[in-house]
Each structure stands twice: as C-alpha cells, then as structure tokens.
Amino acid sequence: MKSKIIAIIITILFISCQKQIQEPISINGVWESIGSGWVLQIQDSTQYTLYDVTDISCLPNRQASLEEIRSSLSLQKDTLSLQKGVMTYRFTRATEIPTHCTIPISTTQKQDVLYNFEVFAQTVKEHYVFMELNQIDWPELYQQQKEKILNNPTDPQLYKTIEETLELLGDNHAYLEATDAVYEALEALEEEQEEPSAEEALVEYGDFQIANMVADTYLTEDMTKDSWLIKWGTMENNVGYMQVKAMWLYAALDIPQALIDEVGYVDAYVTTFHTMNEGTYIQKEVAGIAKTMDQIMNDLKDTQAMIIDVRFNGGGQDAVSFEILKRFNDQRRQTVKTKLKHNNGFSPELPLFMDTSPTAYKKPVYVLTSQQTGSAAEAFAISSMSIPYHKRIGAHTQGALSTALEKTLPNGWSFSISNEIYMDVHGNSYENRGVPVDYKLDYPKDRQDFFRYIAHNLTVDKQQVLEAMKALEVN
C-alpha cells in the first residue's frame, strides 16, 4: 500500500513538472524600465506599445507589431531585456499599466505651455544624472524657470526657457527640437543683429570641411572608395590613415528623393529613421559601416601601423564605433560599463564588451582626438583604452559620454537629457573632463579657433602627430 501511494505521488509530480515545462513564462503584460522612464505593454504576443512615463505624465512613444522588436527581446526569470545597439535596457513586470496611461490627454492640454514645461521639468528631475557633478540646485532652478513661463505662457517663451534650462544644467548631450512655426516666431522676435565684430568676421570652417583638408595633407595615396564619411589610404613609411568624420549616416534607408530635394539629405535621413524602430535603425547603421570597414581593412591590412583620426567627429551611434574598433581588437574584451539613473540611485551596472574579427589588425594603432571629439566618438576613444597596443594623441575629448535619453513633450517637441554614467573598466567617468590622451598636443579649446589652427598649420599638425607616434613607440 505504501509503495502504491509513493508511485501516485511521483506520477503527480511528474505530470506537474511536465505541465510547467509546457507552459513557459509569457512576455505578455506590462513592463516597467529600470531607468529611462518607459512602460512597455505587450498584448497577445502580437502588438506592443511603448510609453514615456513620469510621475505626472504618460505619452505613447511607439505602437507597432511585436515582430519589430521580438528578436531584440529576451526574458530571464522576472527581467525582460531589450537590446538597442550596444545597450541593453531592462524591464521588470508590473501588475498593471499606470492609471494616467489610460486617461486620454485633450488637445487643449497637449498645447498647454505650463503643462509642457512641467512634463519637461519632471523628466529632468527623474532622469538627469549629473545634478551633483554640475552642482545643480534643482528645486531653485525649477522655480526660477517656471516663473518665466507663468509670466509669459507662450510657445516661444517655453522654447527659450527649456533651452536655457538645458544650458544651465550643463548637459553636454541635451538637445531641443520644436516645430517650424516656433522657429519662425522666435526669429520674428529677434532684434536686429549688431554689426559683426572682427572676430565674427573671421573665416569659419565646418567639421567635414576641415577634416577633408587634413586628410588631403596626410595621405600620400588616397584609397577612398564610395564614401563621404570616411577617408583612408597610406602615408609615408607605410603608415595607414583612416579618418572617420561621423558615427552615423551609414544606413541604407531608402529615403524618398522628393524628401531629399525638399529638406536636404541629412534632414531627410533623420526624418526617415525617426519613422523606424530604433533598434532596427541601429542595425542598419552597423550593416552600413561593416561594408565600408571590410573594404578599408582589406586595403590597409599590410601597413605597419595605423592612425585613426576622430578629431572632427561629433558622434552618432556607439554601435558604429564598436563595429569599427572591433577590426583592431584581437580578443573579446570588456571596454566600458554603464549605469542609469533610477529612482534615488542607479540601475545595476551593465558591462559592454568589444567583439573581435578573425583578421583583427594587431599592429600599433594611434587614435587622434580633440575637444571636438564627442559622444559616440568618445565611446570609441574610451574603448580603445582597453586595447594594449592602442594609444591616443591630441587633446582630451569633449566630455559628453552619456547616452542621450530622448523624450517627446505633449505638444510634439523632442528633447533629450543625459541619464547614464559611462565609465571605463576601472569605474572612472570622464563626463565633462573628456577621455584623456597618452600624448598631449596643444590644441585651442574653442571649436573655430581649433579649426583655424589646424587649417593654418596643416603640415605642422601632421609632423606633430608623427613625432608623437615616434615618442610613444619608444616608450
């Protein structure tokens, strides 16, 4: 009798285990991000809605088929991960969608100037990560800026107040984008400009313009093919030179020609990728740069050393930086780690790893940086610190390493703030101070002063870099 009871219990346990195996945990439901202020709602395993949420607002960010992000999702225990480029965003399950996500916002409220300011301010309060670093008294600053809205509740005043607030926060990665109507109104309010001073009358250079001048000076053999974003070739003594002007604009997006004719290529590019899921867009950027890098590495594989010039590179996508740098990395390495502002503390640290390629370039590499090297180009610089045969020459970078958290106001304006601490493998953050170099060159800090200095001393600049390479080689 006892053995029969034991057999029944074993059978029940076996059936129970089988049932658990056959019923995996579903990703359907409501998920709250750890940092970033997102709520992700997945319905029937077919549709998803992403909301931008603060304590006082809930705005739909994107609604689409789940197939759009399914390959970027992974579920482990009670944590759902969403991959976007090199970043992984984590979500925990919520019992229900926040109440204010179920209440429609009226057209009047969407356009209410004070309400838009309050949503902006609440986003800053919840997510801006450098209050302490930049010594910001947020309650005082918030009240000071709110008074300006109360005294003049107009769209132009709202724009000027938000723009000024971002400047006062000292956020190196912030931006604000309104509508054409607002820009026209702001222009109409501007007073007549004064006569340009002697300084204003000086020649001004664009970053691509000065970059081309430098590449033309450095290269003895230009091997560039089918690219306006990267120039490459060889210098004297079989030294390879690769100049990367941007860490974006590589994706094949099928931009309508009519849109390009109307607003220009870059604006048309931005308009087009904003219609896409961000993760899909980043994948296209990586595919584009990978194709170009295949050609470059084939052309320069037999050089004895390599210069990678990102001095005039203002950034783009970290995933593009990682795709370039992995061609020079001989083993998979942790290069950086990040954490997001979350509640009154931070999310768990997320390590980022640099992949390698089967034919990695393992000879000396010299990365040229300046204070105009920003954002994703700084991710390139900080990641190069983990590779032993890579050295940096020039000036420290801009100090804008945090990923920009992009949000939309109720009135449709877009803005971003920094919500991330971006660190090297030892936990050092270079926000504001920039990624350091191994050999310092005396570059002017001001953008145009730096560009003019380079433009007027192209040959000297090249010689200084070559001398720095020689000094580092000896060391």
From TrEMBL:
GO terms (BP aspect): proteolysis
Protein name: Peptidase family S41
UniProt organism field: Dokdonia pacifica
Chain ranges of the Tail specific protease domain: 252-442
SUPFAM superfamilies xref list: ClpP/crotonase (SSF52096)
Organism domain of life: Bacteria
GO molecular function, one term: serine-type peptidase activity
